[in-house]
Amino acid sequence: MSLLTPLLLALAVAANPVLIPKSSAKALKARGLAKANGLSIDAVINEQIDNQVVSYNASVGVGSPATTYDLIIDIRSSNTWVGVGKLYVRTSTSVQTSNRVSVNYGDGSFSGTEFTDQVTIAPVHLKGTLSPAILSTVPTVTDNLFSGELITSNEIGISFEPTTTAESLNGELTWGGTDSSKFTGSIGFTPITGTSPANQYWGINQSIRYSTFTSILATTAGIIDSRTTLILIATDGFNSYVRATGAVNDPFTGLLSLTRFQFENLQSLFFTTNGITYELTANAQIWPRSLNTAIGGNADSVYLIIADFGSPSGEGFDFVNGFAFLERFYSVFDTTNKRVGFATTLFTHATTN
Ligand SMILES: *[C@@H]1O[C@H](CO)[C@@H](O)[C@H](O)[C@H]1NC(C)=O
Ligand SMILES: *[C@@H]1O[C@H](CO)[C@@H](O)[C@H](O)[C@H]1NC(C)=O
């Protein structure tokens, strides 16, 4: 079968009222380091499950006849696996390999049996390996789509809209291309960073500035991560942001909070990568107020989505542009050209929060 057009898939976004413990981000960095040094990931890090405020799923069929599973979209990992909540149903297309699989994400793990099976994404079928055992050396479903000539380029375009209700259908994933109806202007690309350990993920070089003159981070490496809820910044940069905004730590949510007056004076943050600057407005820097109570906060308070990474800058992994960033910018993960792209959207300057 040949279908050389991008595939679109709507994503369901569920906002579950729990925040990620800080230690998850540190584990992510440690895992990247271990991987860069060729160490066994499982042997090095053990850490608790992370709780996410926001998770999003794509409905994918496996087998023939297909059983439909809600797969969590995780750009951080190359594994596709099923079996939580809904057991894997073997059909005539399911072929068991001789491999056992076990992956520790640091913030959770799974183990199981490897199969190759038919995967149905929208109306297209392809053979994919489920639960590949070794990260990054086994073709992902996207790789297989590409090598099977079902899509023209090995890339994924991701569109999210700011989440203001506990559950909403507001994302779109495009396999093999981008959806120009989801962004404004053009996509600016930046190469994957050479700096370790950020280069073990979708890592880029980026600087962050508050308002016109306040440097938060000089150009340094970090990652884009769809599974991290907030925007995390190395402790020294985070402290500069705290000083610039006057924010204080809120013990109930664990987030920074601002008074009304401070919020009225909150300035934009500017993220610059490869010479292109993306503006994260004041509104985009706050937690959606409609979800304040869902995280144990006060309905009338203003909480910030900028959080402390928990380790100093200069260690090759100094920021995580998480979901709160991706809700404001269209993103493209281009495997062929080893680069990440961003574009503004209708929501970049929206005041939904
Ligand atoms: C996403 O998938 C997980 C795991 O199957 C499930 O628990 C969750 O309810 C799903 N969320 C949505 C919005 O479908
Ligand atoms: C990123 O920053 C590092 C460290 O300054 C530099 O060596 C590298 O050339 C930069 N660009 C890329 C694409 O890695």
From TrEMBL:
Keyword Signal: yes
Pfam families: Asp (PF00026)
InterPro entries listed in its UniProt record: Aspartic_peptidase_A1, Pepsin-like_dom, PEPTIDASE_A1, Peptidase_aspartic_dom_sf
Gene Ontology biological process terms in this record: proteolysis
Positions of the Peptidase A1 domain: 56-343
Record-linked SUPFAM superfamilies: Acid proteases
Chain segments annotated as coiled-coil in the UniProt record: none
GO molecular function: aspartic-type endopeptidase activity
Keyword annotations from UniProtKB, A to Z: Signal
Signal peptide limits: 1-15
Protein's name according to its UniProt entry: Aspartic proteinase from Irpex Lacteus
Species this protein is from: Crucibulum laeve
Similarity comment: family membership: Belongs to the peptidase A1 family.
